[in-house]
Amino acid sequence: xxxxxxxxxxxxTIFCFLMGCNSQVKEPEKPSTRWSEEQIxxxxxxxxxxxxxxxxxxxxxxxxxxxxADTFNPKQINQEFQWAEELGMNTMRVFLHHLLWEQDAQGLxxxxxxxxxxxDSHKIKTMFVLLxxxxxxxxxxxxxxxxxxxxxxxxxxxxxxxxxxxxxxxNNQLEGYIKGILSAFSKDKRVxxxxxxxxxxxxxxxxxxxxxPENKADYxxxxxxxxxxxxxxxxxxxxxxxxxxxxxxxxxxEFSAIDxxxxxxSDLISFHAYDDTESTKMxxxxxxxxxxxxxCTEYMARTAGSTFEGLLPVFxxxxxxxxxxxxxxxxxxxxxxxxxxxxxxTNEPETWFHxxxxxxxxxxxxxxxxxxxxSLGVKP
Length: 380
Description:
Blueprint: H1 8-19, H2 37-45, E1 51-55, H3 63-67, H4 74-87, E2 91-95, H5 98-121, E3 125-129, H6 162-165, H7 168-172, H8 175-184, E4 191-195, H9 216-234, E5 240-241, H10 257-265, E6 269-273, H11 277-287, E7 294-299, H12 308-318, E8 321-325, H13 366-375
Parallel strand pairs: 1-2, 1-8, 2-3, 3-4, 4-5, 6-7, 7-8
Helix pairs in contact: 1-8, 4-5, 5-8, 8-9, 9-10, 12-13
């Protein structure tokens, strides 16, 4: 991407952030509102059945290692996206981090453009996730730590993390990041949709809960409200969403305040489903009351009863977009279950928790790969 060709708003935002100026970019007088049911249904009808994974390269322990200049690996991404294309996948959900913007805004945008070019060459559209409340609440730039042996997501980091989340003055400063990223790619057809905030309010029980603030959900809700407002002020051509993630066995009127806000303000309804097939079907039916398209942006945890065999046919029949967690096994170590934080593992588990392929591209289970290909009309 030629940075000179970026929209004016993005150029001004980047310049202000890099130069450290405090002036605010002039905002639209009338921020946009949630897309109408007619608008979002028309948009969704124009998409194929969307199937992909939550993606990070096997060489990256977290978002920072994926995107920082010295560890960004286009060659590996291209190889892994080739494997995804061979499976028939047409989309990927990919996490960003606000510290990358603070470190080098122009560099991040250039690397995102490189990434999008790779994805587009394999007929894959990208869902970017801008913020995340899951795992380590103390993110730091620079060289990332090595994985803890046999521990699930031992190095994944939150964005913005505890210190910024609880300080309204500091998290207000993320307006430049949100608006800068959205503005730079607001009309980019390679970007499918924006997922503004992954699992806001997650207290990370049994891993980092001792570092989490009291009443985290209150801080996260307040921050999420700001993020939605900033996104609407940019008014990207792509829809925006935040997943409902705590209420799989609850009625909509019983949702938490965070899930209720996400449900009411997202252009389409996204959700997470790490439960058995029947529970997930009931969840989908409840969410369908919104009269909006539905995306499952996280599923597939084999030992928790969430499987390709059980769920992919259900998603296909209902034309619900499906993003399983994990693609190629690597430094995130998500082949190990969540309980690897409290239970000792010494070898690869017989039943993988997440992920589809081994680092050399061979499938963990050939039958799953064949199911994905068959579901998407791809001949093995």
